[in-house]
Design brief:
Structural class: alpha+beta
Number of helices: 7
Strand content: 25-35%
Radius of gyration: 15 Å
CATH topology: Aminopeptidase
CATH superfamily: Gcn5-related N-acetyltransferase (GNAT)
Strand order of the largest sheet: 1-2-3-6-7-9-8
Largest sheet: 7 strands, mixed
CATH class: Alpha Beta
Number of strands: 9
Shape: globular
Helix content: 25-40%
CATH architecture: 3-Layer(aba) Sandwich
Number of domains: 1
Length: about 180
């Protein structure tokens, strides 16, 4: 039986990294990426450890295997990854309800992924609800970006309640900036 929890061990972080690698767009092929979804950014284990030290990531485990994750991050990792930095810079210049995000408290999804064997079981909404229960007291919004070619992910985020608030050009393609307003 799969369980939802925070990362607690180095082995769990390594399992998260392995699941990330197994779902990288550049490794899985275009047909599978379009059908199943994908992740684009690759984070080193050192960066994942730094992110985890600030806020532990949320994982789904089946036995000892990490089968899903949501990477939690904030500006404490600024300067560590060019794509993450670019997103934070863009977010800070993006308005929501007429206010720049730089003027409010928001937290960011570094990435979300569920392994093939556990897709379609509702893990993404469960991880996001867990995320909200942990962080909604300190942050108004949860924000991330999604490749416009990742239709599966866009649909899932819309079902959860994320709104598209902008577009960013990154990694050679367009990305929707999406925000979940935790005050609604």
């Amino acid at each position: 039986m799969a369980i939802l929890k925070l990362v607690e061990t180095e082995q769990e972080l390594i399992g998260l990294k392995q699941l990330q690698t197994n779902n990288l767009r550049r490794l899985i092929g275009e047909e599978e990426a379009m059908k199943e979804g994908f992740v684009t950014s690759e984070y080193s284990l050192a960066l994942l450890q730094k992110m985890h030290a600030i806020y532990p990531s949320i994982i789904v485990k089946e036995g000892e295997e990490v089968v899903g994750y949501t990477i939690v991050t904030n500006k404490g990792v600024y300067g560590e990854h060019p794509e993450v930095d670019h997103l934070f810079n863009t977010l800070d210049q993006t308005k929501y309800n007429g206010i720049l995000l730089s003027e409010v408290t928001y937290i960011m999804i570094g990435q979300v992924c569920v392994g093939k064997t556990h897709r379609g079981q509702g893990w993404v909404p469960k991880m996001y609800e867990f995320y909200k229960s942990l962080h909604s007291k300190n942050y108004q919004y949860l924000v991330t970006d999604i490749s416009q070619t990742n239709k599966r992910s866009i649909r899932m985020h819309q079902k959860i309640g994320f709104e598209t608030i902008g577009v960013i050009e990154q990694v050679g393609t367009g990305w929707d900036i999406v925000l979940w307003d935790w005050n609604k």
